[in-house]
Design brief:
16 strands; 5-stranded mixed β-sheet; 2 domains; 9-stranded mixed β-sheet; alpha/beta; 11 helices
């Protein structure tokens, strides 16, 4: 998933004041650009406190997502009464009061940003816009789950500690590529924390899918292909059961790389299906191997269906700092190659 964080702050770094009504920080020009940004994403996410305090409709995006632990959300809020599209509520427990107005997803605790992203991606979200508030933005940044950040600062508004609420001051790591613009007096900075590598990803992912076609048909496992691209650009390929009836595709490619003396730190592995997180017939899962050898990115086309086990590969990798990107446009091709199992 590609994730953008976007927020508007006062000159002294507040997202809101301490009055009951929402503080208007953005200029009309900035607000127009935010709407254009929303239209380039397929889902928008906010925290429950923003929903309660601002009562927004979140127009302009097909899927609206709210996260809540307490479940204290009024079904009469404008999001449920005045907005169209899909509304998802992510929580660690059921929220019966919302069942008629939204789809409540009960996720496994703890509901970290890594789990939020994984749950949404499993439901087809590919481009997520996170609009805050401060608590949510902090979680995504702390877990390293922001690809781009849009910070809009209004230098004409300075609240001071007595008036400001929800402080959020973002400083990008040194050397982060940035682009700046002035939108009607609003100083907008765009930070790119992870470059978009869609073209390269799709090329190698397609090669991994092609490799999966070599797998013999087997009723107890998926036909999967994998391609490793090391930091120096060397390629290694593997597919399920290529040299052993207990080897997975990722494992086959990793073994080839290790036999060739390759350094896998910082490498990317492209695999047609989510790396497994549990193995009965081998000492380590593919997720554990990917972590042990220091891969920095994992790109795949299909989440593992829940036919054999409940796979936790993507969420585990994300929560351990590995960048994960899924291309759902290729999911059906992978499921087709595995149609003997369904
Ligand atoms: N200027 C801007 O661009 C901007 C944008 C957005 C919001 N805001 C402002 O920000 C303020 C709200 O910010 P905030 O930091 O107080 O709150 P917030 O981030 O909007 O929401 C926090 C709430 O989200 C839920 N939550 C957070 N992390 C969760 C997790 N991992 N799992 C499950 N639920 C989780 C919890 O809801 P429960 O309490 O229900 O458990 C938590 O209390 C508002 O005043 C709003 O106006 C400003």
């Amino acid at each position: 998933m590609r994730i953008t964080l976007s927020f508007a702050a006062t000159q002294d770094g507040y997202l809101d004041d301490n009055t009951a009504t929402r503080l208007k920080i953005s200029t009309p020009e900035d607000w127009e650009a935010v709407h254009a940004l929303r239209s380039r994403h397929d889902a928008i996410l906010i925290g429950a406190e923003t929903l309660r305090r601002d009562n927004p409709t979140l127009k302009g995006v097909a899927t609206k997502v709210v996260v809540s632990r307490s479940g204290k959300i009024d079904p009469q809020l404008r999001l449920f009464q005045a907005s169209t599209g899909r509304i998802l509520i992510l929580s660690e427990q059921p929220i019966p009061a919302l069942d008629k107005v939204a789809k409540v997803i009960v996720a496994r605790a703890p509901l970290t940003a890594a789990r939020i992203v994984t749950e949404l991606e499993r439901r087809g979200v590919e481009r997520l816009l996170v609009e805050g508030g401060a608590q949510i933005l902090r979680q995504f940044i702390e877990e390293g789950l922001a690809d781009e950040i849009r910070k809009a600062v209004n230098p004409a508004i300075c609240l001071g500690e007595a008036l400001g609420s929800t402080p959020f001051r973002y400083t990008a790591p040194e050397g982060t590529p940035t682009r700046e613009e002035d939108l009607g007096g609003m100083q907008v900075t765009h930070y790119t924390l992870q470059a978009d590598r869609t073209a390269e990803d799709l090329h190698y992912l397609q090669a991994a899918i092609e490799a999966s076609r070599n797998c013999p048909i087997c009723t107890t496992c998926y036909r999967v292909g994998a391609v490793i691209r090391t930091a120096d650009g060397t390629i290694y390929t593997g597919y399920t059961h290529e040299t052993s009836p207990t080897h997975h595709a990722e494992q086959e490619a990793i073994l080839k790389a290790l036999h060739a003396g390759a350094d896998l730190r910082g490498a990317t592995i492209y695999t047609s299906m989510e790396p497994c997180s549990k193995r009965a017939s081998e000492p380590e899962s593919c997720t554990e191997l990917i972590l042990r050898y220091g891969f920095s990115r994992v790109v795949f086309a299909a989440y593992e269906p829940s036919k054999f086990v409940c796979c936790e590969g993507a969420c585990t990798l994300r929560s351990r700092g590995v960048a994960v990107r899924v291309y759902s446009s290729l999911t059906n091709e992978v499921l087709q190659i595995n149609s003997h199992l369904f």
